[in-house]
Amino acid sequence: MGNVQKRIPFFFIGQITQKQRENFIKKYKVKIIDSETEEMVTGMAFHWYSGDHFEEMDLVRKTYPNLKLILSESCLEYCKFRSDDVTEGVFSLVHELIGDLNHGMTMFHDWNLCLDETGGPNYVGNFCHAPYLFHREKKRLLPQPTLDCFYHVSHFIRPGSVRIAHSVYTDKIETTAYKREDGSIAMVCLNRTEKQLPVHLRINKKTAEFTLLPQSVTTCEISDL
């Protein structure tokens, strides 16, 4: 392979060995057997099904700072989340995206963009949620809450943005913040609780106050800094 193509665009290690991100370092070292092979690899992909393991991502990023980390699959499986109320699943997915972004993820894509109204077709019966469901009998395309979830990340955190440091006063609020190429800042906030939570934003000696609604995702755009 090295003689045919010197550099592989991405190395989807999750597709080759165990699909989850625990033991990331060990998996990488097993597959990358020499320096020539390592030069061909530009990234590692992972799934989300076995838990956060954000510390493992930190370890990979520290040990191999040039590797791109790609979330390649994050389905909301109906065997784990309710099909009639996907609220819990959607907030789990936002938690995943915020955590991954804060720990070095550079790209993500969803496994299923559109499924039928049952969460299929699926040859093993493992039905899943998707940003769009198509009702076959009614011939209707039904946008789903996960579409809004992805929108907060893909629309506001634009290509070329750089993650910036931030801190929060409570673990009830999850955030990630990026400085965009035009100098503005996008901050995505998740409130998974059933209560309103106050936010006192402070940056460059300027302050602003707002409230996060219960069980909500909010994105703030900050300019004129």
TrEMBL record:
GO term, biological process aspect, one: glucosylceramide catabolic process
UniProtKB keywords: Glycosidase, Hydrolase, Signal
One matching Pfam family: Glyco_hydro_30C
Domain of life: Bacteria
Domain (Glycosyl hydrolase family 30 beta sandwich): residue spans on this chain: 160-220
Gene Ontology MF terms: glucosylceramidase activity
Residue ranges annotated for the Glycosyl hydrolase family 30 TIM-barrel domain, each copy included: 18-157
A single cellular component GO annotation: membrane
InterPro entries given in the database record: GH, GH30_C, Glyco_hydro_30, Glyco_hydro_30_TIM-barrel
Similarity field: Belongs to the glycosyl hydrolase 30 family.
Protein name: O-Glycosyl hydrolase family 30
